[in-house]
Amino acid sequence: MTTAPQNPAPVGREELLTRLERALHTRGRALLTGPAGVGKTEVALAEAARAEARGETVLWLATLPSDREIPGAAAAALVASVAATVTWPGLGTSRPEPPGPHAHATEPYGAGGAGAPGADPAAAGALAAGPLSPGTLASGILTSGVLNSGIFSSGVFDQLPGPQRTAVAMLCREAPIDAGGWDPIALRLGIARILRALTCRGPVLLVVDGVQHIDADSADLLRFALHLAPPALRVVAVETPEPYAETHEPYRESHRPEDPHAAHLWVPSEADVLRVPPLQADEIAELLIHHRLPSRMAGRIHRASGGNPRLALAVGRSLADARTPVHHAEALTLSGRARDLARQLLGAAPPAVRETLLLAALALRPSATLVRRAGRPSAEADLAAAERADLVSLSEDGSVTFTAGLLPSTLVHDACWSERSAGHAALAEVVDDPVEAVRHRALATERPDEELAAEVAAAAEVARRRGNSALAAELAMLAAESTPGRHGTRRITRLVDAAEEAARAARADLAMRAATDLLARDAGPSDRVRARLAVLDTAGQGLTGLDEMYVHAMEDSEGDTALRAAVQLRLAVKYVLADGDPERSRTAAVESAALASSMGDPRLAAQALTVQARMERALGAPDAEAVLAQARGLERAERPLGIRNAAQILTIRHALFDDRLNDARDELNALLPLVQRRGSVEDTIELFSTLAAIESRRGACAAALSHAGQSLALTLEAGLSPGPAWYTLALAETAGGSFARAASYARRSVQASEEEGDRVFLSRSRYALGRVQLITGDVATALETLRRVQADERAQSTVDPSMLRWHEELAEALLAQDAADEALALLAEVRPVAERLGRSTVLLGCDRAYALCLAAEGRTDEAAELLTRTAESFGRAGLPLERGRALIALARVERRRRRRSAAQTALHEAASVFERAGAAPWLALASETPAGEGAGPGAGGEESVPALSSLTEAELRLARLVGQGASNQEAAAKLYLSVKTVEARLTRIYQKLDVRSRAQLATALRP
């Protein structure tokens, strides 16, 4: 028995598909339900594809809203689908020509044929299945009173008794309908017999997409047929609930309103009803990547879409189609298809519900009570209907949350000014918070008013003291916009305050809005600089494309030492992140520190010295730690506003680079409560990211995954670039999660970093990806990836090898691809630098790679001795995962020395190390039977062919490919090598194994 390969699940739906298959296996029925656009059909399609891959017959019936008005429409479509899909044996395998698109979309996925082994040709319904294009139905006519064309021409229904055939023909309009209509009992039995016949040759999966549109007669027919169907017929129904049906569907009201299951094909139980949930933010990012859409704004797209895949893709395409790239500091482009989809969702609601929802959209903290007090007496009922439509969610206390940010923004966007003004005025009268009342009063008027603007500015200060930085930023912007034009100086001052408040709240959109307004006015140079700096501070990693803003900031800061120091500091950051030029960054940081010191600004001087120390470390300068200590001293005297890019956090990262991991963790844990209480979201992200990197390195794998996950969640929630957070999660997944997920996150980080133009994290994410590729045996791809890291790091003039440990990985990849000389040259290049800078654990990584070079040269005794010492040194350094990796390398060398017991001992020790650390992927790696090693002597392993121990791993891979019959060209393509390299490597293999032909090579490889 062979198992069909599993078709990949839609993004984020693997667990749901597993539950669906479990429900089908145990109950034979499953109902997928959820709001429009959430991906129900995608899940059903994935299950249908898997069923087809298993050899099952699959029928797909898609309904339309108009079907509900046509008695028997869905049942007729199903019969026509069966006729178009299957034929009796002996009638040939040809299918009816598709006549073109019809109202019913039927998409059978059946596979197999009537002549399959074991089929009973005499059994009713011994069917041969085949594909039919979606949206087509077989058609035909009744000739001379004989049912010999249309759906009956295939012979599928020949075994039906006469009355049943006649009833089915009437249903499908292939026979005249008598005055009394078709025989309902005959029709019921006929439909049941057709479905039962389908199961005689094997399992059948029936998918009904849009079960809410099935007409009452068809629902009754199918319920009866499914009740009699054998277990071999499994059914997936796809339903989009209709929350407003009782008020907008008179047809449904007139058909058995007393039966709550009138539209269902069976009475569903909790076990077979599967709700399709919205996607998480990280899954939205994966969805965007899957559709080749920019993923750098995945967090903001997730908020706008609420995790609804259809909405998310519409927003993503809006961004992709924008004439100019949308920056993090700009509002999302929510026009076109995205707005139309939101309007469709909202348009289904009755006018009264939409009016209630508009009030909720205008409120800062909407609740049913607040909306009712603001003039909507039916608020609870309206919101309950909206909740059934998945437009909002209601908590126990009545608070209202829209399921997608696009919904309230579309409500407000489409409402006229008078509606918005009336709504804000009503809310201002009933809210219980003076700050919110002032906000609504300001939004209710379009005339600037200085007295009102002053009240709003005071409210912004109150919100700031409360710690609500987001509200403070919004109110500061509102205060500026409420200031009359005749108070130009005051308005400019408030615009500067709004921009800086937005920067503190990480509200890039508000910072850009305030700066754009200010720069259009007659503002002074210092105000223009401060507004531009606020925009730069909210840009995150996306500094590319802001060159003009830097240029103008430099021009406007001319003659103002304090402002010039601040601009130089931002330039120092840009030069390293966007330009990849640490030397220029260091120069700008030095100038910034000098200017700040001359002005007596210790806080700014500390920030500049921190950037300088970071660049000094990267460039391998010996005084990096002294500069950092100077910055720390200034920070102690003048406490920084946050930890991000502060000397304290850089000190911790230097400890991480030096593998002083316990010190780094202890100091960071001491910061955690303070940052969580009072820090900005970016501070918290920085803290969790650094903690995750520390725990990944020290082998605390569960903690690393937890911290990395928190960092990503906060990043996406804040709408920041996810590239750095994905890199951190790739490291954590490599340590204790899954190599496959690690590679996926690393690829995402590469893409996001490329989109942002972030040179630093582009190099880091490529390193994380290349490392996983190497570990998992994808050597050729790893070599290509790591070479790009080498080029990136050299282009950035990075000297210190401890900041990104790519050298040892690249050396091992080179060695695996028979470039031993290049690997040795690389190790010889990095070792003196590591020794000069005192990077002891970098030297240990070089030792591991060098030991593999010794083994490749045949000096296996020396290699084993060096790897043993290296593993012990890694253990003493508190690096369990590196110790385990050295032990795996030692096991490989011991196998080449034909010391099977020693190899097993090393592997068992490595497995024990990984198990204690919770390093699941490494444990699986250590627990695998070593390549080429069988269960015992004569089992076909390398022990039974001693000569094979002289081959390198790269040579052994090629030898096996060629021994299995691959040509030089095929082997080259498989191993990503040139044909000349394959020829040269084969020559060495022949010499080592003393063979002269491919046949002799194949013989030599046999036990």
Notes on the protein architecture:
With 1007 residues, the protein is mainly alpha-helical. Helices cover 61% and strands 4% of the residues. It is built from 47 helices and ten strands. The chain has a six-stranded mixed beta sheet, sandwiched between helices. Strand 6, helix 6 (216-228) and strand 7 form a beta-alpha-beta unit. The longest helix is centred in the middle third of the chain and has 18 residues, at 661-678. Residues 1-5, 88-149, 246-261 and 929-945 have low confidence and may be disordered.
In helices, the fraction of residues equals: 55-70%
* Count of DSSP strands: 10
Q: What is the CA–CA distance across the termini?
A: 28 Å
Quickly give the structural class. mainly alpha
Strand fraction equals under 5%
> What oligomeric state do these chains adopt?
single chain
The biggest beta sheet reads: 6 strands, mixed
- Average pLDDT value? 83
What's the overall geometry?
flat
Low-confidence stretches: 1-5, 88-149, 246-261, 929-945
The number of helical runs is 47
Strand order of the largest sheet: 4-2-6-7-1-8
Q: Radius of gyration in whole Å, from Cα?
A: 35 Å
Concise account of the structure shown:
The protein has 1007 residues and is mostly helical. The radius of gyration is 35 Å and the shape is flat.
